[in-house]
Backbone:
């Protein structure tokens, strides 16, 4: 275990010596695949936002696009969620992951079309899968709705990505590894593992009875906890000290944080099976592990807020930091609330209500997506050698994202709690309770609309930026534009 | 952490542990449940699904019903499922062993369906009410938020005698609305969702047991 932190690479004899590859050169080697993955991820984000908006509207307006089979609510929801997770999240994870891995390893990404081929396969597989959902080939487990025939394509694509990830990790020039790398290696490895298990145990050779529900709950939560979250945590660990310009305090706790997170996160998903048709010890294991997860979360809090402490004035100046801070706060809030509400007294109220959707959005949007946005705002100028063309669009994106997610999480969380409390009163008819949630559902729809505005702003800004980069010569000025402060320079002699 | 291999082994073990403990142990403890056979009558519960119901299960999946409906009754005392008429006992693992794919769901935008096959309907007979409700929910339940599923039904010209399966709907002279095979399959699947038998492991999870316990407790 190393106790060194990532920002003390100045000693001459240190294992951080890199042999002199400039950051710009490393970025250059990742440029094509990262741009490809991130731009397609953005297209999926736009699509999934649009689908989610329709899904949200259908909940309070059942006559909207009603009576046509391929437009029915269940298919819209499956398409929206899957294009978000496997399109936006999956592809942006690969973009951000490879950029971070290359930088952290201080080595260039091996130049090869393999990654691009993988990206094309992934996009095609997903396109076929989402189309299949609308045509009615969806399957009935959350996040596993993609039809049978799209799964092999996705798996082949991911295998190519995974091989490349391992190679990038092994070709590292630095002997030491950082906590960001552990999270990235974990995420790249965990996803194919849980995905294949879920495919085999639910569809290939389905296990019997409600053991399927255990597998499905385990998988669905781990998509977030062992795939999306680790990449976002890695990005925070990388960006935060860089942007604030000071090392992470108590960095030696990082390995404890990482390993305890890895150990407990896998159990968290089954907590929601409380009172369900599975043995009680299974949900108990989930509840305990969610409580234990507070230990690594506390370590992350010490690291993040310790780095930030006294430096909050910097947050107003940097869009990256602003997004990052929202992501960090959302992560902490989600983990604490999740652990708390897992207890059976609370589960009696919030189980099966819109609170579940609020949690999901807080995790995958408030935390994960916000951190990815932050990374993109930092990464893209360095890859393209030009600045974001419109600060107004950046601001529009930030405030839309913040207000939108606030409306969705707040509306569904509060409305869901009221819904759950009223469900416990048998004198109130079910239909009255369902109709009672309508104002909250309308609030959430507005939230989605605002998110859509924000995503369009991001997309426009990104497209403009890419055009600018094409028009100007790529090499000029990058070094001076994005030079690190002198105290963060890696000494190479 | 200088050794990449160690990192891989650790990462692998972390997720393997949750898999082994939750899923493998779960498989060992209840992965091979058999139907419960009543000693006196010789009947086995739960009864297996018919072929039609199994096709209905596929319809349930492809319409995404699971995104709004659960299929799990919580025990009396944990929520008020029984007072809502969703079932008089908790649904337990053995209730699901006859189902090829299990959709217990996780959100109740609509009511629970685990016991829908046994539940009374306010008018018509069970099948007719559910057909009409699927065809247009707001016709029977004003203000309902459920989508309608008219494409599971066929509006056709009456040739000769009206069909005996036609829904009691007035859709214009000479026309009738009849359920398609998919609608019949879906209803067979829903009809199969019932908890009208008792299982030894569920005896403590019934309304009667709960009320008994309630009476014994000092106020």
Residues:
């Amino acid at each position: 275990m190393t106790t060194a932190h990532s920002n003390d690479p100045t000693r001459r004899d240190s294992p951080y010596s890199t042999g002199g590859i400039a950051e710009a050169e490393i970025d250059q080697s990742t440029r094509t695949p990262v741009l490809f993955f991130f731009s397609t991820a953005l297209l999926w984000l736009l699509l999934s936002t649009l689908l989610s908006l329709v899904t949200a509207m259908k909940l309070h307006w059942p006559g909207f696009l009603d009576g046509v089979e391929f437009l029915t609510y269940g298919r819209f929801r499956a398409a929206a969620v899957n294009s978000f997770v496997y399109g936006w999240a999956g592809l942006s994870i690969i973009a951000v992951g490879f950029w971070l891995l290359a930088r952290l390893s201080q080595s260039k990404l091996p130049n090869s079309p393999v990654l691009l081929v993988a990206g094309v396969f992934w996009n095609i597989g997903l396109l076929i899968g989402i189309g299949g959902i609308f045509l009615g080939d969806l399957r009935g487990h959350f996040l596993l709705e993609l039809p049978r025939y799209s799964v092999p394509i996705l798996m082949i694509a991911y295998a190519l990505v995974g091989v490349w990830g391992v190679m990038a990790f092994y070709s590292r020039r630095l002997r030491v590894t950082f906590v960001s790398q552990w999270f990235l290696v974990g995420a790249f490895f965990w996803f194919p593992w849980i995905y294949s298990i879920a495919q085999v145990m639910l569809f290939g050779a389905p296990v019997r009875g409600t053991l399927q529900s255990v597998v499905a709950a385990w998988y669905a939560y781990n998509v977030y906890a062992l795939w999306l979250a680790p990449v976002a945590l890695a990005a925070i660990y990388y960006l935060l000290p860089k942007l604030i310009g000071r090392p992470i305090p108590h960095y030696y706790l990082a390995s404890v944080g990482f390993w305890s997170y890895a150990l407990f996160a896998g159990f968290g998903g089954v907590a929601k099976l409380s009172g369900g048709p599975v043995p009680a010890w299974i949900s108990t294991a989930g509840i305990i592990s969610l409580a234990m997860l507070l230990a690594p979360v506390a370590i992350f809090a010490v690291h993040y807020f310790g780095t930030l402490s006294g430096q909050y004035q910097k947050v107003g100046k940097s869009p990256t930091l602003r997004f990052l801070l929202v992501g960090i706060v959302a992560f902490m809030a989600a983990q604490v609330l999740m652990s708390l509400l897992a207890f059976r007294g609370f589960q009696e109220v919030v189980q099966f209500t819109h609170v579940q959707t609020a949690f999901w959005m807080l995790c995958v949007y408030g935390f994960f997506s916000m951190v990815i946005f932050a990374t993109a705002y930092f990464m893209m100028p360095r890859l393209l050698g030009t600045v974001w063309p419109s600060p107004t669009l950046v601001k529009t994106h930030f405030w839309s994202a913040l207000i939108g997610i606030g409306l969705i999480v707040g509306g569904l969380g509060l409305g869901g709690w009221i819904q759950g409390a009223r469900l416990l009163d048998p004198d109130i008819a079910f239909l009255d309770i369902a109709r009672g949630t309508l104002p909250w559902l309308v609030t959430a729809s507005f939230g989605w609309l605002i998110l859509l505005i924000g995503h369009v702003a991001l997309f426009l800004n990104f497209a403009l930026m890419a055009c600018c980069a094409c028009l100007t010569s790529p090499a000029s000025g990058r070094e001076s534009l994005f030079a690190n402060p002198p105290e963060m320079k890696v000494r190479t002699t | 952490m200088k050794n990449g291999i160690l990192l891989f082994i650790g990462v692998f073990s972390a997720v393997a542990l949750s898999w082994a403990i939750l899923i493998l142990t779960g498989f060992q403890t209840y992965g091979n449940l058999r139907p419960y056979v009543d000693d006196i009558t010789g009947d086995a519960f739960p009864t297996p699904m018919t072929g039609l119901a199994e096709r209905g299960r596929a319809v349930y999946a492809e319409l995404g019903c699971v995104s709004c409906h659960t299929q799990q009754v919580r025990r009396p005392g944990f929520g008020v499922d029984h007072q809502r008429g969703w079932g008089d006992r908790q649904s337990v693992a053995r209730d699901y062993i006859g189902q090829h794919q299990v959709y217990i769901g996780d959100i109740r935008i609509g009511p629970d369906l685990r016991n829908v096959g046994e539940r009374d309907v306010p008018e018509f007979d069970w099948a007719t009410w559910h057909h009409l409700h699927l065809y247009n929910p707001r016709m029977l339940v004003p203000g309902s938020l459920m989508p309608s599923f008219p494409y599971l039904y066929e509006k056709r010209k009456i040739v000769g005698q009206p069909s005996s399966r036609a829904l009691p709907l007035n859709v214009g002279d000479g026309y009738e609305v009849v359920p398609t095979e998919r609608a019949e399959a879906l209803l067979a699947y829903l009809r199969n969702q019932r908890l009208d038998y008792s299982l030894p492991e569920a005896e403590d999870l019934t309304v009667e047991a709960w009320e008994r316990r309630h009476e014994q407790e000092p106020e």
